Amino acid sequence: MNKFISSIIIALAIAVSAHAQTADQHFKAGLDFYNAKSYDQAITSFSAAINLNPTMSGAWFNRGQSYYYKGVFDKAIVEYSQALKLKPDMVDAYFQRALAYTKIKNYDAAIADYSEGIKLAPTDSQFWHNRGLAYADKGMPDQAVADYNEAIRLNPAYVKAYVNRGGVYFRKKNYQAALADFTKARDLDPNLVEARYNLGQANYFAQNYDAAIASYTETLRLAPNRADAYMQRGLSYQKKRELDLAIADYTRGIEIEPEKADLYHNRGNTYIDKGLMDLALADFGKALQLNPKAARTLLARGNAQYRAKKYDLSLADFSAAIDADPNYVDAWLNRAVVYNVTAQYALAIADQTQAIKLAPANIMGYKNRSISYYQIKNYDLSLADLNELIRLDPKTAQNYSMRAEVFEKKNQKDLAIADYTTAQKLDPTNTFAKAGLARLGATP
Asked: Which H helix or E strand runs over 170?
C-alpha cells in the first residue's frame, strides 16, 4: 500500500516537473519572440506557458508586454492585473500598467499605480518622473512639478525630468524657469534634439530672438529635416524684421514638409510684411487648400485682400473665418473695419458689438465702435464707448483726443479742452491734441 502511494507521488512529481519544464520552454520561446518584436508569436508562447502553469506571474506580465507593444492596451492591463494578483509586489507590473492606463488616458488609474510603485520603490526616480507626467497630462501642473523635483533630487542627471519640468514651466509661461531646465537638459545631453528645440521655444516666447535663432540652428545641425525648427526660426527672423531670412526658412520647411499648412501661412504673412501681396495671397491659398477651415489663415488672407483694396473678397474671407470659428474676435473686428470703410456702419456696429460680447476687455471693440457711432453722428453712444475705452486704457493719449473731439461735437468745450490737455500731457508730440486746443482757443 505504501509502495503504491509512493509510486503515485513520484509519478505526480515527474508529471509536474515535465509540465514546469514545458512551461519554462514556452516562456523562454516567448521571451525570444518578444525580444525579436514578434509579438503575436510571443503571445502564443506565453499563452501556452500559462495554460500549463497558470501561476507563472512572469508569463502573464510578458504577455501583457506583448499586448502593450502591439497597441492593445486594454488587454495589456488585464494581463498586468493578473500578474499583480499572483505577485502583489511586482514593481514592474505597476509601472507598465500605469503606462497602459496613460495610453488610454485614464490618468487617475495611472497615478494610483505609480503611487503604489513609489510605496514599493520610493527611491526609483522613474516612478516619480512618470507620475509627474500623469499629473501633467491630467492638468495638475503643481503636482507634476513636485514629482519632477523629487525625481531630480533622486537622480540629478535625469535629463527627461528637466525636459518635462521645463515643459510645465513653459506652459505656465514661466519662461525663465523653463529656460533653466532646458539649458540643464542640453548641458547633460548636448545631442538631445528636444532640449535644444525647447530651449529655442522658451527663448522665442521670452522674446530672446537671437538666442532662439541660435537654439533652432543647433536643433537643425542635429536634425536637418526638422521642418518645425525651420518654421520657428523663420518666426524668430520675422520678429527681428529679417524678412528674407524668414522666407528662406519657411521655404526650406516647405521643401521638407510640403503638406504643412502653417509654413505657407507664415510665409504669406512675411510676404505681406514685404508688400508682396500676390505672393502672400498665393501662399494663403495653398494653406487653405491644405486646411480649408483654418480661421487664422482666412483672417490673414482677408487682411491681404483688404490691403489690396479688394473689399468684397476681404469680406468673404472674414465671414468664412467667423463661420469656421464664431468666437474669433479679430475676425469680427476686421470685418467691421471693412464695413466701416465701405460706409456700412450698421453692419460694422453689429460686428463690433459681437466682438465686445466675446471679449469685454478688448479695447479695440470699444474704440472702433465709437468711430462707427461717430460716423453716423450718434455722439452719445460714441462717448459711452470712449468712456469705457479710457476706463480700460487710461494711459493712451489718442483715446482722450478722440473723446475730446466728441465733446466738441456736443459743444462741451470745457470737457474737450480737459481731454486734449490730458492727451498732450501723455504724449507731447500729439499734434491732434495741440490743434484741438488751438482751435478751442486754449493754451497747451
From this structure: helix 159-171
